[in-house]
Amino acid sequence: MSNYNQNEMVAATRIIKDLTTKTPTLQAVFNQDAVNISSELDNLIKETDRLEHSWHAEVADTDPILEESKIVFAKYRDLVIKRLPGAAKMDWQETDVKPDVFALNLEKLIGIIEDNEDKLPFAETALAELVPISNKLDMELTEDREARRIYRNSVLAKNAALKKAEIFFYETRRFIRRDLGRKSPEYSQVKDKAVRKAAKELEQQGNETLTEKQVVTEESINS
């Protein structure tokens, strides 16, 4: 388990990048790696955040179709049970379940109606409604799963970058302590306390930027 959270690790890599840029002793040994690692971590964090929003947006797009599907499903489920009492014993009736499970229940209902068309006077009408909405829901859920898969892969890549950054940070910190001294100003910047302070400052800057964006948005709306 890392000693630092994500914000602290970002702050740590930026401190190292700054030190290796300004300190000749560190520049030749660490600067290029510091720049690359810091840039990679920043980019992966931004990409993971973007993909998380994309995934949530996909899920939000599915919600109206899911609700419509449940309404149609409930209507024909009740009609089927009235005509086929034995169907009530089958495990397919629930709507208040996870979307993937509901999609299976919807498919089971379609199968029951197809197998009993001669006993269900509403079968043709039901299938004309249920099949298209089932296909539409299936497409939406497939897109949701793909967005989730891509997001989860990005989380794995980000976590690997965080680990890589942590190893590099401690390697550089040991070098600074050994070659520049524990009392050096450079070493004071890479102590845990200094890193956590820098992380809080970064977080505060981020909050201020977000607030500024909100103000601009509100002004645009009101203008």
Describe this protein's structure.
This protein has 223 residues and is mainly alpha-helical. It is built from six helices and no strands.
* Structural class by sheet pairing and helices: mainly alpha
Radius of gyration over all CA atoms, rounded: 28 Å
The N- to C-terminal Cα distance equals 49 Å
Sum up the overall morphology in one term. rod-shaped
Residue-averaged pLDDT? 90
- List the uncertain runs: 209-223
- Could you tell me the strand content as a percent range? under 5%
Structural domain tally:
1
| Number of E strands | 0
Fraction of residues in H or I helices: over 70%
Determine the number of helices (DSSP H or I, runs of at least 4 residues).
6
Largest sheet: none
SSE string, helix = H, strand = E?
HHHHHH
Question: Topology, pairings included?
Answer:
Layout (H helix, E strand, L loop, with lengths): L5 H17 L1 H60 L15 H17 L7 H58 L4 H4 L3 H31 L1
Distinctive features:
rod-shaped; disordered C terminus; single chain; 6 helices; mainly alpha; 0% strand
Give a nutshell description of this structure.
This protein is mostly helical.
